[in-house]
Write a structure and sequence with these properties.
Two copies of one chain form a homodimer. By secondary structure, the first copy, chain A, is mainly α. Chain A has nine helices and no strands. The longest helix of chain A has 26 residues. Chain A is elongated, with a radius of gyration of 20 Å. The first copy, chain A, starts with 17 loop residues before the first helix and ends with a helix. At the A-B interface, helix 6, helix 7, helix 8 and helix 9 of A face helix 6, helix 7, helix 8 and helix 9 of B. The structure holds a DNA duplex.
DNA sequence: ATTGCATGTGTACGCTCGTACACATGACCA
DNA sequence: TGGTCATGTGTACGAGCGTACACATGCAAT
């Protein structure tokens, strides 16, 4: 018992990669409390670092948000690329889309919420609008490896709708229902 | 010049329907600044009433949000009902859906933003989740007047996707593109 | 071994916010 | 016409926020 009267002053030091951990912590906070509830103090608490560390690593809270959402978009886009890149023909691509929606997109409530949070945040902050648009362009290009331009765009919209609709409903669509919707549209 | 030294003390009185005006002002503020930027003070400024008037008419800020979003959902749902109710056969219903998306939903950027804002807010506040779910149920029932249950649900998702996709893109889909997507799915 | 400097830490400042609450006033009813 | 009270108004308070900044510390280069 030595820290009851004086401030403890943490001994912690030498934490390489802390900046990365802070970005991950930011994503956790955004998913749990929303962008509105995301503060320097809350991120620091989750990452278990002092408040001062935030202002050292980031110039502003907007910078944190931009880096966090960029990481999220990159992560989802990579899965998109991989699934569609592995498909050899159109039928396989259709299966890839079904798996993508059922497993990858609807499988993680965390990612789902992050996506919607990004959408509204992008409506106000230009830096985030750029992130979403780059993401959209990339996923549409991935679809164009197997489908014509018009189909790719429409399919992209359908995917968006299926995901969002499921996310907000009390009874999310089952994999069978997803398959039915995609099949009906593509075959 | 008599109000430079002392507080002006507004003479205003007798403003029936002020509560309604405040709810409308809240919708304006939400659309312009987002739920996060919606405060008692900002709503009061837009409606040109003193701050104290907010706490008189509403028990909390959440109550304001709930009433505002309920009004928004009701307003959109009514248009939905009207368009589909007027359709006499399936072909007319398809046209109604196309008009609905192209004109009503995509026509108003104001309403579009309100809808997305409602979606994320509903993820945190149970009262708002109830609002979105009642809304979804109602629009699906409107579609079921002309389409079978499965088609109605899938069509609802497609509409959601088309709207959201257009809302976030730099180049929103044209009415022709909307028509093409809906036609492909329904005919 | 010394020291410079990137990294890490604690705290203070000014601001805006939701909410509470005391006071004003005029429409309506007896 | 006089009084009541729902409605309208101004202001204060405590909390949480972003950010700035002075101080600590140990790795690396000399």
């Amino acid at each position: 018992m030595s820290d009851l009267t004086t401030t403890p002053r943490r001994p912690r030091r030498h934490d390489p990669g802390r900046r990365d951990r802070l970005i991950d912590a930011a994503l956790t906070v955004i998913a749990e409390r929303g962008v509105a509830g995301t503060t320097h103090r809350e991120i620091a608490r989750v990452a278990d670092v002092p408040l001062g560390s935030m202002t050292y690593h980031f110039a502003s809270l907007d910078e944190v948000l931009a880096e966090a959402f960029t990481r999220h978009a990159e992560s989802v886009a990579r899965v998109f690329d991989e699934r569609l890149g592995a498909a050899q023909d159109r039928d396989a691509a259709v299966e890839a889309v079904i798996t993508l929606v059922s497993d990858d997109l609807l499988g993680s409530r965390h990612d789902l919420i992050l996506t919607v949070e990004l959408y509204v945040a992008a409506a106000r902050k230009p830096a985030l609008k750029a992130v979403t648009q780059a993401w959209m362009r990339r996923s549409r290009q991935a679809l164009e490896r197997h489908f014509d331009v018009t189909t790719a765009r429409e399919l992209d919209a359908l995917i968006e709708g299926l995901v969002l609709h499921s996310a907000l409903s009390t009874e999310p669509m089952t994999p069978e229902q997803i398959r039915h919707a995609v099949d009906r549209y593509l075959r």
